[in-house]
Amino acid sequence: MSGALDGLVALDLATYVAAPFCCTLLGEFGDEVIKVEQPGLGDDLRRLGHQPSDGISYMWLVEGRNKKSITCNLREPEGQALITRLAARADILAENFRPGTMEKWNLGYDALAAVNPRLVMVRISAYGQTGPSRGRPGFGRIAGAVSGVSYISGYPDRPPVSPGTPTIPDYLAGVMGAFGALAAIESRHGTGLGQVVDVALYEPMLRMLDEMIPVHAALGKIRERIGSGTEYVVPHDHYRARDGSWIAIACTNDRMFERLAVEAMGRPELHVEFSSMEERLRRREDLDARVQDWVGSFAAAEVLARLDAASVPCSRVNSVQDLFADPQLRARENLIPVPGPGGETIWMPGIVPKLSLTPGRVTSAGPATPGAHNEEIYCGRLGLSREDLAALARKGVV
């Protein structure tokens, strides 16, 4: 079955998560992704986080999936010449170095566009290609802090926390990078020209702050931490069941609250007492305490059944163990088994989104060794001989 992006070629010159994830997404839908790694060491993601016995991290096996690995020393002129030749026949190139680094290596957009005007370059950096902070380093935790998301995450009497994991900003930046790349490819159909896709690591998180920015601009309101509750609707929180499980309940309008109070809880007087959102927000602590008392009187399975019967949006707050047991996730193939480098099974997140005609696919885990596809790419794509390749390896270029 053909992929939606069959025929496109992407060069992944990045490391860690953000820009590599952009290329992972493209590769899942048919883009041929050539991952460029450091000679010898390989990509730093190979060593980040937990590792099976062969020393390749699980993050690498997931985010390197479907990719072909070559090695190239980008600091060497001969390495730069190889990348330029590959870029001349590529559609997308992704990088996440500090602004100016690619230019220092003679691999900036102007240089590459001179040999391939149709090239789309995705540039993901901590602060973007412009502005007074453009040269500063950063990772996902820093992006969460800059964007304002970390400030509102957690409880008022405790330090701010990273929302979820510190890598979530990286993943979101990768998603925006992939979206930008495809938008630029679509534009290329009309103009014949590529362009730069510039994403700062903090910007996707900033874009997802719902009403926080316009409310502050109009009213001067600074949103503070309120724990797991929600600023503008109540009850919309996590509540603990009798057996210790946590239950998420989300009532975003009057109709949902009525179903919770009358049908699920059997407390019509509660609906009368808290009939408006304004009243529910004003007496947030009182209402949340009453919902908690009700949830806490049942085991998780029973409270979920009552909420489902009343069509109240709810869920168990899943641990990773719960994810593997969830029948919905199984039905949607949200967790998939992929053969690892040694033939072992590696469980990974599945493909998102699901396309009905040209669905994505995972054909392999991340390559076991850096440069596993050197011969295929350098000899097959660039026409080097094996002797040429061996000579470059002896010089440390590949």
Summarize the structure.
This protein is an alpha/beta fold and 398 residues long. The chain has two domains: 9-207 and 331-394, Rossmann fold (3-Layer(aba) Sandwich); 236-322, formyl-coa transferase, domain 3 (2-Layer Sandwich), CATH 3.30.1540. 39% of the residues lie in helices and 13% in strands.
Characteristic key phrases:
39% helix; formyl-coa transferase, domain 3; six-stranded parallel β-sheet; 398 residues; Rossmann fold
Structural write-up:
By secondary structure, this protein is an alpha/beta fold. The chain has two domains: about 10-205 and about 330-395, Crotonobetainyl-coa:carnitine coa-transferase, domain 1 (Rossmann fold); about 235-320, formyl-coa transferase, domain 3. The chain is about 40% helix and about 15% strand. The protein contains 18 helices and eleven strands. It has helices at about 20-30, 60-65, 75-85, 100-105, 110-115, 140-145, 170-190, 205, 210-220, 255-265, 270-275, 275-280, 285-295, 300-310, 320-325, 325-330, 375-380, 385-395; strands at about 10, 30-35, 65-70, 90-95, 120-125, 195-200, 235-240, 245-250, 315, 335-340, 345-350. A six-stranded parallel sheet has the order 3-2-1-4-5-6. Strands 7-8-9 form a three-stranded antiparallel sheet, covered by helices on one side. Strands 10-11 form a two-stranded antiparallel sheet. A hairpin with a 5-residue loop joins strand 10 and strand 11 (about 345-350). Helix 1 (about 20-30) crosses helix 7. The protein is elongated.
